[in-house]
Design goal:
Oligomer: heterodimer
CATH topology of the largest domain in chain B: Rossmann fold
Number of helices of chain A: 10
Strand content of chain B: 15-25%
Largest sheet of chain B: 6 strands, mixed
Distance between the termini of chain A: 19 Å
CATH architecture of the largest domain in chain B: 3-Layer(aba) Sandwich
Structural class of chain B: alpha/beta
Radius of gyration of chain B: 24 Å
Order of helices and strands of chain A: HHHHHHHHHH
Largest interface: A-B, 34 and 37 residues
Structural class of chain A: mainly alpha
Helix content of chain A: 55-70%
Number of strands of chain A: 0
Number of domains of chain B: 2
Shape of chain B: globular
Order of helices and strands of chain B: EEEHEHEHHHEHEHEEEHEHEH
Helix content of chain B: 25-40%
Chain lengths: 276, 318
């Protein structure tokens, strides 16, 4: 946000991070008071766990890795797509439509502060989802957690980057939505396609190579790989397409997507769906 | 809240033009609003009120004209302006899950030097409702909350877009009380409304917009109609035995009571007419004219005459 247009009195410029914090606390409060939203957000990965647990048994091609353990990464990533991309595309479209954002546009706040608030809540909700998923998964399905501090750290940056990219893309896509009721219809198809080809619902290494190549252009495939790298035994990397966890590449791709999606969101953002 | 702008104009507009396709929705509007006054923009739907105000708020671009709001060009909503104006739109979005105090605190948090939340709530008469969820407020309380959110940043200029539309008369009166209180705060207010009574009650000066042009302006009591509107003497014939036939001679014009017996007579000399009517009543053996009143033209009468006259004139000139 440039504040260089200031020409009159008061060289005060709004603190982008500080106002982002103001927005974050407010958005979190609003989210926590919406009981249905909280319950379904937290239940979403558990439902996936239940479905995978019922439908899939046994290990993957004598690798010693259980199917449920493999798809744990997919459940987490799928929840991230749902909480970031899909849910934000709707929320933001509604707020553009009902005048909430138009009113905020008249205040000193930068859109970036607004993004920080929204993305912060997405990350907070995802953290809560994962805690619940690990507890229930650990108790009833014997899923393993990351082995060491390095594993937790890796999972941390994969999630933060993945969720931020997912959130920014969700905000960006509202540019294509005039009627908030259509937001889900616009956001669902790309999200669904990506989930099918990115190792969320199927073994990534089992997909045709050309589909793998398409998927590799998008962040979701790298997010699931990054998560598998800390949720599966290290030896499983031999079964991945590159025979390696490719953590550097995961970081670079996710970082580029986060940055690119952030810039896209900032450039396409409208405070109102009826803006000029 | 009184800053260095005393005596200067808070807002100035010259030759403002806005076109949608080929239609000039705003067609050369001039306005000037003095610091500290309550200024009211009047006009029928489609007159260009909202477009004009949205250009001044920085939400819309303009096609021509000079605009200065607190000395700045509002186009692109420069930060130096956003921190000094308060905006109360017709819809303020949804903060249903937040309490009244939290909603105001949220807006307070966005400004460099906000009012304490309690003070802002006291200004709009909502202190007792501070812990209630915004979604549970009545329509009038909801609008007063909107005003509190517009005020909490200590604006020098406050935009109020139809603050009482849809409110019941009691809620409207309370809002007026709130807005009158702002006068003592030194805030300049630009108000739009459909209610002439509201403009007459609150505004220091008004401008009437018709077809994208200012057709009249000034203090509400000095607004002149295109042709003089005469005061009206009115009373009711309560029984059928009044000698209506004699009235024509008394009034000097043909008089026809309406179905409920109301007689309405426009006159430039109401006192003389009332004396003659009193004589007429006495000669008929009656002492009282029921519901006798003299009605001066209200701002609404003047406004309607203006709108009617100019709308017709513009139709012809097209």
């Amino acid at each position: 946000m440039t504040t260089t247009r200031t020409s009159g009195a008061g060289e005060w410029s709004p603190p982008v991070l500080g106002l982002g914090w103001v927005r974050y606390r407010l958005e979190l409060k609003t989210f926590l008071r919406n009981r249905e939203e909280v319950v379904f957000t937290l239940a979403f990965p558990l439902i996936l766990l239940l479905l995978f647990g019922v439908g899939l048994n046994g290990e993957i091609e004598s690798t010693g890795v259980d199917f449920v353990q493999y798809f744990l990464a997919g459940m987490i990533a799928s929840s991230a797509v749902s909480a970031g991309f899909i849910s934000l595309s709707q929320q933001v479209a509604i707020e553009q439509h009902d005048g909430t954002l138009k009113r905020l546009a008249g205040t000193p706040m930068s859109p970036v502060s607004y993004f920080i608030g929204k993305t912060g809540v997405v990350i907070t909700a995802a953290a809560a989802q994962m805690v619940l998923l690990f507890v229930i998964g650990g108790l009833f399905y014997g899923v393993d957690l990351p082995r060491d501090a390095f594993g937790w750290l890796t999972m941390g940056w994969v999630m933060v980057l993945g969720l931020a990219a997912s959130s920014f893309l969700g905000i960006s896509i509202t540019r294509m939505v005039d009627d908030p009721r259509a937001a889900a219809a616009v956001a669902q198809p790309p999200a669904l396609v990506l989930q099918f080809i990115s190792g969320v619902f199927f073994l990534f290494s089992g997909l045709p190579v050309w589909l793998q190549n398409v998927a590799s252009l998008f962040p979701l495939r790298w997010m699931t790989l990054g998560l598998r790298s800390v949720l599966l035994p290290d030896g499983f990397k031999a079964a991945e397409t590159a025979g390696d966890w490719q953590r550097t590449k995961v970081f670079v791709v996710l970082a580029i997507w986060t940055l690119g999606a952030g810039i896209l969101a900032r450039r396409t953002f409208r405070w109102s769906s009826r803006d000029e | 809240m009184d800053r260095a702008n005393e005596g200067l104009n808070a807002l100035e507009v010259e030759g403002l033009v806005k076109c949608y396709d080929d239609r000039r929705v705003v067609d050369g509007v001039d306005l000037s609003i003095r610091a500290g006054e309550i200024f009211c923009l009047l006009g029928p739907n489609g007159a260009g009120k909202t477009t004009t105000v949205e250009i001044l708020e920085g939400y819309r671009t303009r096609d021509a004209g000079r605009v200065s709001v607190l000395g700045l060009d509002p186009e692109g909503r420069p930060i130096g302006l956003r921190s000094r104006v308060g905006i109360v739109l017709q819809t303020t979005g949804s903060f249903e899950r937040l309490t009244v105090a939290e909603t105001v605190a949220q807006f307070a948090g966005l400004y460099p030097d906000p009012l304490p939340v309690g003070e802002a709530l006291a200004l709009v008469d909502l202190s007792e409702r501070s812990e209630v969820r915004s979604g549970d407020l009545s329509g009038g309380q909801r609008r007063r909350l909107d005003v509190a959110c517009g005020l909490v940043g200590r604006p020098e200029l406050l935009f109020l877009d139809e603050p009482t539309t849809g409110l019941d008369p009691e809620a409207r009166r309370r809002m007026w009380g709130v807005l009158e209180g702002l006068r003592t705060q030194g805030v300049t207010v630009l108000l739009t409304t459909h209610y002439m009574e509201e403009a007459a009650h609150l505004a220091d000066r008004v401008s009437v917009l018709v077809g994208g042009r200012v057709v009249a302006g000034g203090p509400p009591e000095t607004l002149a109609p295109p042709e003089p509107i005469l005061p009206m003497v009115e009373f009711r014939l309560d029984t059928p035995d009044w000698p209506v036939g004699e009235l024509t001679a008394v009034v000097g014009d043909v008089v026809v009571p309406d179905a409920e017996g109301w007689v309405r007579i426009p006159t430039a000399e109401p006192t003389g007419l009332i004396v003659r009517l009193a004589d007429w009543a006495r000669s008929a053996g009656r002492t009282e004219l029921v519901d006798l009143a003299v009605r001066r033209p209200s701002l609404e009468d003047v406004y309607l005459a203006l709108v009617d006259h100019h709308a017709r004139w513009m139709e012809v000139s097209r």
